[in-house]
Write a structure and sequence with these properties.
This protein is mainly α. It is built from four helices and no strands.
């Protein structure tokens, strides 16, 4: 199908509309017998050792994410022209 072939697109849409069914949960909720959704929050108290561990995990994840973003940024900058560099040079980690 060529780009802009509106008739072909309309025909395809018409055919699929006849053979496919699309429903959202709200339209069929009474047929599904699903229990109502509940949310339960539990607050945890961490020991000093656990708090230290999770703080270190957080710091490691943040550092790793910054390294990945910086690497992607440098890769993009190396592929694009100077005008593009000016736009991304304002990106702050």
């Amino acid at each position: 199908m060529q780009k802009g072939d509106v008739r072909a697109m309309e025909f395809t849409h018409k055919v699929f509309k006849q053979i496919m069914w699309r429903s959202s949960k709200k339209h069929v909720a009474d047929e599904l017998d699903l229990p109502s959704q509940e949310e339960c929050l539990s607050w945890l108290t961490l020991s000093p050792v656990e708090e230290h561990f999770y703080q270190r995990q957080h710091e490691t994840c943040v550092r790793d994410a910054h390294e990945v973003i910086e690497s992607l940024r440098n890769d993009i900058l190396s592929r694009k022209g100077p005008g593009f560099c000016l736009v991304l040079s304002n990106f702050v980690l």
